[in-house]
């Protein structure tokens, strides 16, 4: 593929609900452009952008992929994105580097949660948007119903510039509202024709609405229009392009990706009314800790940002990047502004799905790939030495679901740390942490599919087999009343013996007050140097677990007496005396279990508010309050036992058909209701 100047480039992210047809549309565009000679199908696992075995297995996209093609003297970089909520991070990444978001909406299912979620992100990024109403060939398809839903959700900026000719089985073309021309498709290629009679009236009405909608955005045009001088198609398109670039007008086109019908027209509109990378002339970067605006230049030193990292089992690490400013050349060395490492771009290439095509250079605005960078991750900025600027950080959603992982064999254990590091480079949402209390390694992600795919990829890409287990709730223990006991450690069977006695009183402290050791030894009943050992023994026992086995908290221990032996006493014997005394005292001090309570904030469309609040109460939750939020949503805050929300991400998704999102954080510990004690004790014993 030849190198195109920035004004001839279009970076387009295909976004929308899972199954709306994004991958199929990317395939149809490549096919229409002649980049591929046959039209792959998602069901057959032979599309360009769904190239991962896991994607074939599940028939959906799991990560973003590039599909560049040439069209009418331009280069269109299509970024196919996953619609599944578990892989939303790649939608953020694609919208971070795109100049136009094309929303693929099924004419059968209409606006869905995936459409709305992506729209909110594009809105936040103030990104130009347009809509492709897809699947018009399908039964139950309705252009009008879908258009109404789009207007209802996304407002008056929604502007149809095409109408379908026929629907469902009779769908066979589109009417262009700029030129009042019909395009009739027969086995893929279009014939221009007059608007069919049955559509003429509607077409004229919508055409007039479109013209009026456009001229009001331009005073000169409006004045002329009011004098009866109707702008021509080119002028209308030019004015609309301004509204598109300002993210105030959202053109709607339509077709069928499987036909394919009218996908060529989408490509043409992207070229004619879609913005180029030159829409951004400056960028707010971070330099020396403060934010500065830098001019983006088509020439001069390159400024590059990595927006996706792929861990390829054969090639190694592949970094996809956007050239934010300047030109980047093969063999060039740039500096990573996060890690400081010098990165040699030995070979730069274009990615078409999983295939790469080497190029000598890439201009400002283009998207490319480079392999084997040494210390560069997603979001990093590369620039020439002496220009320490960082491009705006990429938004990485926080994980909402965890699973515990365990390597299956010793060999797997040896490889696990490195494999986790590499898979996190590829997937920055993933978080791995170790819970010292429950002694589990936790893998956190966006949902069940995300975690399952990660386990599969660890096996396929890095040859590490891991087992998953339910996450243990980090219960704790404390005492509910005072008690006292003696800890006596005595081993005197010839040779150097062991002897230590500690008298301990235990009493509960306030919730969250923690541990306190009080030394009330008088008259040297325990020699000074051994008292810390008593404390050490107690502290270790508390960490190892009390009567039930959970870490002990909020206890005051008073060491008020003891006995020692001039020869046999040692730190060891008094440590043991501390351990034994504390264990015995706990038994008599009414040990209770404390459960963690999380603070949760659930954001849902108000229609689901009642269900969600009812559900939270059924999880022993206490709703703290509700607050109205943008987009007709409500945010419900509540305190809920952590044990009740271990798989809340999954439950909330089904309770709200995917519209609900939440965040949670640990808040405090409180006594576990007694009717749950037996169950928790039984589970703890099972885990041992
Ligand atoms: N009838 C019909 N089916 C279509 C059309 N476009 C896509 N499909 C089918 O819809 C299903 C989903 O298509 P995909 O392209 O995988 O959808 P997607 O948006 O990429 O889905 P995710 O990757 O999960 O986000 C597949 O079975 C396609 O064959 C269309 O225009 N008409
Ligand atoms: Mg897909």
Q: Characteristics of this structure?
A:
Elongation Factor Tu (Ef-tu), domain 3, Alpha-Beta Plaits, eight-stranded antiparallel beta sheet, seven-stranded mixed beta sheet, binds guanosine-5'-triphosphate, binds magnesium ion
Descriptive overview:
- With 688 residues, the chain is an alpha+beta fold.
- It has five domains: 274 residues, 3-Layer(aba) Sandwich (Rossmann fold), CATH 3.40.50; 109 residues, Beta Barrel (Elongation Factor Tu (Ef-tu), domain 3), CATH 2.40.30.10; 69 residues, Elongation Factor G (Translational Gtpase), domain 3 (Alpha-Beta Plaits), CATH 3.30.70; 113 residues, Ribosomal Protein S5, domain 2 (2-Layer Sandwich), CATH 3.30.230.10; 94 residues, Alpha-Beta Plaits, CATH 3.30.70.240.
- The chain is built from 16 helices and 37 strands.
- A hairpin with a 4-residue loop joins strand 26 and strand 27.
- The mean pLDDT is 94.
- Guanosine-5'-triphosphate binds next to helix 1.
Which ligands are bound?
guanosine-5'-triphosphate, magnesium ion
User: Helix proportion of residues, in percent?
Assistant: 25-40%
Widest beta sheet: strand line-up: 18-17-23-14-15-22-19-20
What amount of the residues lies in strands?
A: 25-35%
CATH superfamily grouping of the largest domain: P-loop containing nucleotide triphosphate hydrolases
How many β-strand stretches?
Answer: 37
Silhouette? elongated
Kindly provide the radius of gyration, computed on alpha-carbon positions and rounded to a whole number of angstroms. Answer: 32 Å
What is the CATH first-level class name of the largest domain?
Alpha Beta
User: Which architecture of the largest domain per CATH?
Assistant: 3-Layer(aba) Sandwich
Number of domains: 5
What's the rounded overall pLDDT mean? 94
| Cα distance spanning the termini | 61 Å
The residue ranges in which pLDDT falls below 50 over 5 or more consecutive positions are none
Largest sheet: 8 strands, antiparallel
Number of helices: 16
- Structural class determined from secondary elements: alpha+beta
CATH topology of the largest domain: Rossmann fold
């Amino acid at each position: 593929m030849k190198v195109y100047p920035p004004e001839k480039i279009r970076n387009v992210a295909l976004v929308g609900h899972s199954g709306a047809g994004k991958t199929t549309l990317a395939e149809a565009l490549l096919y229409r452009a002649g980049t591929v000679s046959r039209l792959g199908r998602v069901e057959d696992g032979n599309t360009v952008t769904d190239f991962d075995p896991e994607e074939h297995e599940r028939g959906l996209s799991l990560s973003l992929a590039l599909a560049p093609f040439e069209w009418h003297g331009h280069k269109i970089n299509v970024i196919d994105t996953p619609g599944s909520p578990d892989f939303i991070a790649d939608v953020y990444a694609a919208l971070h580097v795109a100049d136009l978001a094309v929303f693929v909406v099924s004419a059968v299912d209409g606006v869905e949660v995936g459409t709305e979620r992506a729209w909110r992100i594009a809105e936040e990024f103030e990104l130009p948007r347009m809509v492709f109403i897809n699947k018009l060939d399908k039964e139950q398809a309705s252009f009008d119903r879908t258009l109404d839903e789009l207007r209802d959700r996304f407002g008056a900026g929604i502007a149809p510039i095409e109408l379908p000719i026929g629907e469902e089985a009779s769908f066979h073309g589109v009417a262009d509202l700029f030129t009042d021309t019909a395009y009739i498709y027969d086995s893929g290629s279009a014939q221009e024709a007059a608007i069919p009679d049955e559509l003429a009236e509607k077409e004229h009405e919508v055409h007039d609405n479109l013209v009026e909608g456009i001229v009001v955005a331009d005073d000169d045009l409006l004045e002329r229009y009011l004098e009866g001088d109707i702008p021509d198609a080119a002028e209308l398109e030019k004015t609309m392009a301004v509204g598109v670039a300002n993210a105030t007008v959202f053109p709607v086109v339509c077709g069928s990706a499987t036909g394919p019908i009218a996908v060529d027209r989408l490509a043409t509109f992207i070229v004619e009314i879609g913005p180029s990378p030159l829409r951004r002339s400056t960028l707010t970067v971070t330099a020396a800790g403060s934010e500065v605006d830098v001019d983006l230049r088509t020439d001069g030193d390159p400024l590059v940002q990595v927006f996706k990292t792929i861990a390829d089992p054969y090639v190694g690490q592949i970094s996809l990047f956007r050239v934010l400013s300047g030109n980047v050349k093969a063999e060039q060395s740039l500096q990573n502004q996060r890690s400081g490492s010098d990165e040699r771009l030995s070979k730069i290439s274009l990615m078409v799905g999983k295939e790469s095509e080497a190029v000598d250079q890439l201009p400002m605005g283009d998207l490319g790939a480079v392999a084997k960078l040494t210390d560069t991750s997603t979001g990093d900025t590369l620039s020439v030495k002496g220009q320490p600027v960082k491009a705006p950080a990429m938004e990485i959603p926080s994980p909402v679901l965890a699973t515990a992982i365990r390597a299956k064999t010793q060999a797997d254990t040896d490889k696990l740390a490195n494999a986790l590091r590499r898979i996190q480079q590829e997937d920055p949402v993933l978080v791995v942490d170790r819970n010292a209390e429950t002694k589990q390694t936790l893998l956190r992600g966006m949902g069940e599919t995300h975690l399952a795919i990660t386990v599969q990829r660890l096996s396929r890409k890095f040859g590490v087999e891991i087992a998953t287990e339910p996450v243990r709730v980090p219960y704790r223990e404390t005492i509910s009343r005072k008690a006292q006991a003696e800890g006596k450690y005595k081993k005197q069977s010839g040779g150097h013996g062991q002897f230590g006695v500690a008298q301990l009183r235990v009493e509960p402290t306030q919730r969250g007050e923690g541990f306190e050791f009080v030394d009330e030894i008088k008259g040297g009943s325990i020699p000074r140097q051994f008292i810390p050992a008593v404390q050490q023994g107690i502290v270790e026992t508390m960490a190892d677990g009390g009567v039930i086995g959970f870490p002990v908290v909020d206890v005051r221990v008073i060491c008020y007496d003891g006995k020692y032996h001039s020869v046999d006493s040692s730190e060891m014997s008094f440590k043991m005396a501390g351990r034994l005394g504390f264990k015995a005292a706990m038994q008599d001090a009414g040990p209770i279990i404390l459960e963690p309570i999380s603070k949760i904030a659930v954001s849902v469309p108000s229609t689901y508010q009642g269900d969600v609040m009812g559900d939270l109460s059924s999880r022993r939750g206490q709703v703290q309050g509700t607050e109205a939020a943008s987009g007709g949503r409500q945010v419900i805050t509540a305190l809920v036992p952590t044990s009740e929300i271990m798989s809340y991400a999954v439950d909330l998704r089904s309770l709200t058909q995917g519209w609900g999102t939440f965040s949670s954080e640990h808040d405090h510990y409180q006594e576990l209701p007694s009717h749950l004690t037996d169950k928790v004790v039984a589970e703890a014993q099972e885990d041992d």
